[in-house]
Amino acid sequence: MTETTDRREQRIAKLGQLAALGIDPYPARVHYTHTAAEALAAFEQAAEGQTLEVEVVGRLVSLRDMGKSSFAHLADGSGRIQIYARKDVVGEPSYELLRRLFDLGDFVWCKGKLFRTRTGEVTVEVQALQLLAKTLRPLPEKWHGLKDVEARYRQRYLDLIANEDTRRVFITRSRIISAVRRYLDEHGFLEVETPVLQPIYGGANARPFTTHHNALDQTLYLRIADELYLKRLIIGGLDRVYEIGHNFRNEGIDTQHHPEFTAIEIYQAYADYHDMMRLVEELHAYAAQQATGSSVITYQGQTIDLTPPWRRVTLRDLLLEGTGIDIRQHTTYDSLWAAALERGLEISKQPNWGKLVDELFGEHVQRTLVQPTFMLDYPIEISPLAKKVPGSQDTVERFEFFVAGMECGNAFTELNDPLDQRERFMSQHRLAQAGDDETQPLDEDFLTAMEHGMPPTGGLGIGIDRMVMLLTDQTSIREVILFPQMRSK
Question: In which element (H, E) is residue 407 found?
């Protein structure tokens, strides 16, 4: 029998003892007057000599038995508060329950007067207490924290109980998302919802998850992006829309990628990618200020200033600066591949020239972009939904933005020419036939919508998880997703 199993059996035995005493170990409801934080604040704000009586609840996280009296701590969602139980005040039956039948981790209610101990800690002198929920399994030993990474991800509830830093990350995540919503709502954007199950996936270059709808006898896909549905809303006359939701991509898992992730997509009629750049930098500075108190943050020891304006530079210039290769001088796959080999730059084979450009940047330039940087103007081969740069046939008005070496979002001046869009989809189809499994399929319904007229539009997608990583100083996406995917045991 393991130690955990043995202790579980001991706690189950205590349930029997509680039942024999007529005590319900799982009462249906409880009344309390203060959270831990509220009780501490009330004491500090009270007039000198004022007596304060409170009722508090929480998980029993420490217990120090001193014979005829005991000190303990209760923890709730707001923090911790110390309680002090004396046998002659609370009564022998209740006091013995605390000593013999309560365990660390149990949920407890108590009522009493607040006072300050000789060591200066605000404490509840217990007059009455009650068991609210009996725990059957012990919690992380001595509250020193749960260190095993796999256990933290598989049993996030224990991680939240034991690790203050984990709680801080997810509280900050919630504040970031609230700030993003607040900013967009205050700037005239409308939050909408679009389908997660789609008959045709699109809006990004990625492999989808596939499922089957039995009643319709139809193959459906979990969305890889919201884009094509949000553009339908622009066509329908909703000029500023956004959606925060989960996207799903059937791809690998690493520190920056997860098959299920949270993103926001934003579309604004009568705007272009320059407008989207201003939106990105203002939105990030606002969210950082609201969630952390400053638009200047520290990430992995580096000071990063999110205050607008951010640096703007073309993909061509960044590659020239970082690798010495001018992609305007190497406009074929073979020429670009040879130029990379000449300079000793390791890159992997790609299905086309545009993806080779992207690979060259990702392997040899991206990590150098520490301060916020907009990288502009992409090959048309890897940007089938963006409008061409005026006067160019192979470059589009697209940017990605990078902070601390991470790609954090993607935006276009959206293509609104339905005939050009059809040809782009057909080009994607030809790439798929040549072996590229991350191209976008032809969507006739979307093309029909476009033929009804789409105004000039700026579109933007931001990875919420990466924004949270940045603002909470985390290097792994799993640290900012409450329940990350894990391989089955």
Answer: strand 406-413
